[in-house]
Amino acid sequence: MTASDESTIGADCPHCGTAVAAVVRSTTSAPVPKDLLANVPEGEEGIRGNVSYELASCPKCEAPFLRQTARTEPSGLHVRRTLFPAQETKRKPPETVGAFCGTCSVQVEARIVATHSKSRMTSYNLDPADADYSCESFYIAECPRCEGVHLIEHGYNLVGGEFVSNEHYDVLYPQSKTVNLNGVPETVARAFLNASRSFEASLYEPCAIMCRKSVEAVCHELGAQRGNLNSRLRELRERQLIDQRLIEWADELRLLGNDAAHDLTVTIEKVDAADALGFVEALVTYAFELNARFDEFRSRQKERRQRPKSVAERKEVEEPE
After folding, report:
1. Are 110 and 151 in contact (CB under 8 A)?
2. Which CATH architecture does the domain made up of 186-305 adopt?
3. Which comes out higher in pLDDT, residue 69 or 32?
4. pTM
5. So where are the chain's domains?
């Protein structure tokens, strides 16, 4: 088929979300399927006819379509249906979706304001109407309390064009506040994660207490294990393991944790708990991640300086600008 011979068929593209004139790429014919003969009025004899299959693509996103058109004689039956994408994959999107709102610190039913869906066939040895599909939907949803925006991915497999399996929801935006805990000692990581979970559950006093415990764990892992927490922080400063500003932050976390644990008149606000988590993250990052990354950086630079220089590098050193 040449470009000038191209024909089109009307189709609803699930990727673009609009009706398009799909360009027919190839056509083939076969005997009329038996399931179509069931629709022929009783008493008809000598049924004959053919069925054509048209493979087309969306002019916008090039998504494929497979359409079946059957004609029988003498009944004049004319049946047309889209085999791919399967109609079952075009499930009506929900109006709301469950999501955890970090701003409100509660699980909410977010209102879906926009949807984008796509699917692909994963079993090619079956009739497209009975095949398996991998499906994805992306929802832009709004928190009903604070009107915060969420981007949520809804993935599932459609088995046999009918049964849903492996269904999951993932919040792509906003991302949960996390810290890289690779290389962080288990005692420190466990205390920090408990503080984060307490904050997400709107338990701000337990969050403050666990932040204080995170500082204790940092001191323990850095070798400052004698005396109370105040004296251990001073030891870290004297040994120059942590700079003065971080020591001041850690000391404020110590006081906040003391108030949360022992002062019944004190209420820990969300903003204080959020700041405490941020200070702990900075302390953990500095004490373990950045120090380890700097040691690796210094090792690479030392290795680079010890490598034999190329001719161009030696010339550049001998003839500086």
Report:
1. no
2. Up-down Bundle (1.20)
3. 69
4. 0.47
5. 1-30+58-68, 89-173, 186-305
